[in-house]
Amino acid sequence: MNVVTPLRPHTADHDVPAVSIRGLSRRFGDGPRILDRLDLDIREGEFVALLGRSGSGKSTLLRTLAGLDPVTEGSVSRPKDVSVVFQESRLLPWKRVWKNIVLGQPDATREHALRVLEEVGLSHRLDAWPLTLSGGESQRAALARALVREPLFLMLDEPFAALDALTRLRMQTLVSDLWQRHRSAVLLVTHDVDEALLLADRAVVLEEGRISLDLPISLPRPRRHADPQFERLRGTLLRALGVHDN
Amino acid sequence: MSGATLHTQHQPLLRSDSAETDATLPRPNPTRFSLPRWLPSLSRYLSPLIALLTWQAACSFGLLSTRLVASPLQIAHTGWSLLQDGSLMTNLEVSLLRAASGLSLALLAGTILALISGLSKLGEDIVDAPLQILRTLPVLALVPLFILWFGIGEAPKILLVALGSTFPVYLNLHKGIRSIDPKLLEMARTLRLSRLQTIRDVILPGALPDLLVGIRFAVGISWLMLVVAEQVNADNGIGHMMMDAQDFLRTDIIFVGLAVYGLFGLVSDQFVRFLEHRALIWQPAQRQGGRT
Ligand SMILES: Nc1ncnc2c1ncn2[C@@H]1O[C@H](COP(=O)(O)OP(=O)(O)OP(=O)(O)O)[C@@H](O)[C@H]1O
Ligand SMILES: [Mg+2]
């Protein structure tokens, strides 16, 4: 397995959905439906940002896609090879960083770990104990662990939410670079409208259990905040989220 | 993340930490009479030493009847001769073997039981309740029953040790397994680890700090059980040596036995600490405390 070469050539067939969700509903006990007959497609190699108010069910959707929660109503089809990165790195504190990276990958060696750690700029911490990593380093290690599996579909649940603004900017650039190289389908859950606009091909807003807005972002990359188009999309997204800026 | 809970739940670390700050911080009052750097460690042994000297003096001047309490010198002398004729070593070996066999059994049984009850609700229903009830029973009360069941060979002694020390292993490991960060278990699922891999790489290492605390208790209890087992019925072992001495009013031999027990307790505790040190090296606090 070679981590550095792209998973799919850039000329991948973008019309084939990698992930397809149809009529997905989810409720906890007798509570209201958190997801209500939700439909969503993500094409191969597409970067989708998922926004929505707190408690709107973003994590619930992601957990279902990750196979952590059962599908009780509706259908979900997704590639077998998926990876998830959560807000916390969830590294095993008792395994050195590189052992964490190759965990559950019987064929992966220290070399593989080194190569992905190089990609996320963490090769010097190969043998470190996870509890000695900074917040940003932990998240990079978590990203490396996701990448080493060469997922066709990568899920990120607010992976930078706990980082400081500067580190977050660096991480956004890193994710953007990694995605350009690997071209897996990505679903990024975020609260940050700018983050969505910087990274995603498409931003979707989850509201009352459904996708209330599906907004293609066709800005050229790399993207700039100063772009008037950027400002316009930003306003659209914020309005969809119920925030009105004048 | 989980780190914070992981190293606060482990008490011994805190202790070794504070011991270190004590040693490195300058004395708050510079005018106070200060001992040379190496003396503080000696001063810890000062009061036991004085007690020992007082004891010796009391025996030498006839304040204490040597029939009831042997003098330290007498005890040292007896200890030496017991070493010389090999009887101390033979008895010690027998006792150590019993303790070690019992402990190994306890470790095995405690771990298996804790895994069963820690990993499934059904397992907990089946295993936990009976063990909690058994736990309240004073295990030593089972001695007569064990002798009836298993005779007077090695079996009742080893089993008594095993039974007594299974509980701390089980209870602590069970608690450790239950308190593993569910997020890590979720991660194991998203990484598609098999059940066995999850146990080996996530559950057992995560519960290891608690398991080690349990082992420390278990070592203490194993010795306690052994003392009783060997004093009630045995024809060798340290406990037997002491019971024999009682018949001949040899308090010196009894004290040698006590000293051996004490020494064993100390050594085994140090050994478990050493294990903790090695096994928990990933905890930042553990590495800092490592210099003491
Ligand atoms: N295991 C559960 N049991 C009961 N209710 C749950 C459970 N998990 C989530 N919920 C509820 O489902 C709703 C959606 O939760 P979810 O975590 O998906 O929100 P979210 O969009 O990710 O929010 P945030 O942006 O704050 O992370 C919330 O109201 C939450 O209370
Ligand atoms: Mg969430």
Automatic annotation (TrEMBL), chain A:
Upper lineage: Bacteria, Pseudomonadati, Pseudomonadota, Alphaproteobacteria, Acetobacterales
Keyword vocabulary terms for this entry: ATP-binding, Cell membrane, Membrane, Nucleotide-binding, Translocase, Transport
Pfam families: ABC_tran
InterPro entries cross-referenced by the UniProt entry: AAA+_ATPase (IPR003593), ABC_transporter-like_ATP-bd (IPR003439), ABC_transporter-like_CS (IPR017871), ABC_transporter_ATP-bind (IPR050166), P-loop_NTPase (IPR027417)
SMART domains, alphabetized: AAA (SM00382)
Annotated source species: Acetobacter conturbans
Entry similarity comment: Belongs to the ABC transporter superfamily.
UniProt-listed PROSITE patterns: ABC_TRANSPORTER_1, ABC_TRANSPORTER_2
GO MF annotation list: ATP binding
Listed name of the protein: ATP-binding cassette domain-containing protein
Residue ranges annotated for the ABC transporter domain, each copy included: 19-233
Keyword Ligase part of the UniProt annotation: no
Gene3D superfamilies assigned: P-loop containing nucleotide triphosphate hydrolases
TrEMBL record, chain B:
Ranges where the record places region Disordered: 1-28
Compartment(s): Cell membrane
Biased amino acid composition, Polar residues: 1-11
First and last residue of the signal peptide: none
UniProt keyword annotation of Transmembrane helix present: yes
Domain ABC transmembrane type-1: 92-272
Short name of any one Pfam family annotated for the protein: BPD_transp_1
Superkingdom as given in the UniProt entry: Bacteria
Xref: CDD domains: TM_PBP2 (cd06261)
Membrane topology per record: Multi-pass membrane protein
The entry's keywords: Cell membrane, Membrane, Transmembrane, Transmembrane helix, Transport
Coiled coil: none
Bilayer-crossing regions: 96-119, 131-152, 202-228, 248-268
Major subcellular location class: membrane
Transport is among the record's keywords: yes
Similarity section: Belongs to the binding-protein-dependent transport system permease family.
This protein's name: ABC transporter permease subunit
